[in-house]
Fold this protein.
Amino acid sequence: ETERDNRRWYENYLASYEKEQSSLLERAYKTISEGENFDEDTAYRQALAMGLDAKTAKAVASEGAALAKEKVRRALYRAILSGGYGRARAVAYAKSYGYSDEEASAFGDYAEKVNGEEKRTEATVPATRNPDESYTDYLRRKLKAETKKN
């Protein structure tokens, strides 16, 4: 009988623990994914602070940070499309949320294209890439030149 009581207590304990972990997991994911900080390391520390184990915290941080980044990206595109953001403002906004210089510049290019702001004239675009220019920058410059021709 004592063994049966111990088993019942243990099963109840496991059920309670699983329910608590599930609730904690949902709360952590919601907190991270609805936040505006999509840095995975910060999200990981936040999940650990909420009581998740390291493996679960890593998974929640990765998924939550990606979702938060997607929400910020969509908000930025909506702001650009509404005409509220020019190139400089779009770049500054993107950088403030942790986007790299290259990613932020792409937002700025999009804002410039959509809103026609800060049109820069480049004399002629050489067909070859400058030795100190990255391939991405070369393609971006080439695409801009072709877009301006049309």
